[in-house]
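[stage:ingest] chain + small molecule (iron/sulfur cluster)
[stage:ingest] validated
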Amino acid sequence: MVRCQDYHYPRVREAVERALEPLGGMGAFVKEGQGVLIKPNLLQASPPEKGVTTHPAVVRAVVELVAEAGGRPMIGDSPAIGPLRRVLSRTGMEAVARQTGAELVDFSDVVEVKPPEGPFRRIEVARAALKAEVVISLPKLKTHSMMVMTLGVKNLFGSIPGFRKASWHLKAGTDRVAFAALLLEVCLAVRPALTVMDGVVAMEGEGPNTGDLRPLGAILASRDPLALDRAVMEALGLPPEGLPVLGVARQWGLWPEVQLEGEPLRVEGFRLPKGADLTWGLPSFVKGPLRRWFLPKPRVDQRICRACGLCVEACPPKAMEMRGERVEIDYGRCIRCYCCQEVCPEGAIELR
Ligand code: SF4
Ligand code: SF4
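[stage:predict] done
[stage:export] tokens:
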């Protein structure tokens, strides 16, 4: 963990280098001639100052260090929302590619893999993520309505192409443990060699896209995304097992040990989303259709809604429909995945 108070590029570059020092520098991860996939969090076409996506200064620093180590940097992700070109342009990734010569890759071509652990057995992951010789993951430190936080492990869910994400939500249904297991399976399949997290300006409250900015002034790096996630939870004063992916990791015997180097971060009063429950909310005997009644419901604030229909399109079980200018939700079908909240550009969907 190192301190970095803003996104002024020379400071970010220096902070990323300092964060990598105890790990042996970029040369410990990248060898001459290797193709290196750099995977930021590019959830949607948001400008960097909104804090929804990994800041381009962090991406640029990693790209430059990869190139200096002799690697061939490629930047790629599969946004959950919106066409890739627009996302790359709005998030500043096109500019980074222009400045550095990094290649922009798309994730539409998939390959099927059998992860070493977990219940799903077969998942489809972007070929670019699987075939790269080295994967470097660049998550943004943010809250997440469904999974409490989106950190190192969750960032790899972007390796599943956007158009397939809804079907995975459907398979996991209301079961947070099943969805966390899927996230861990994807992470184990992609096996990032290095994770560098953008915690310079984090997001708290109603993340991953309508929360509030929370400057934390930190860049964090680790070989192990699980260890990084545990270290972040502890730095935020939250119980690590409260992060569903870490809870599942413990069940699978993958609980990470953490050896912290650098300048420890101690954050007070970090706000989680209303839907987040660090005990995962439900006793294990609450199963199937009953489970949904214990989880917060998405509600549309009709005063803010502009009837764009994006939530209706994104809803995996088709529980939403437009009736004239109003969005109606069938709560009997709703699996409480909160994809609707994630895609709403107006922040019109609340959880209650
Ligand atoms: S209404 Fe929202 S929370 Fe419910 S299933 Fe649809 S997208 Fe998910
Ligand atoms: S995405 Fe948001 S603004 Fe668009 S219809 Fe749904 S609630 Fe309304």
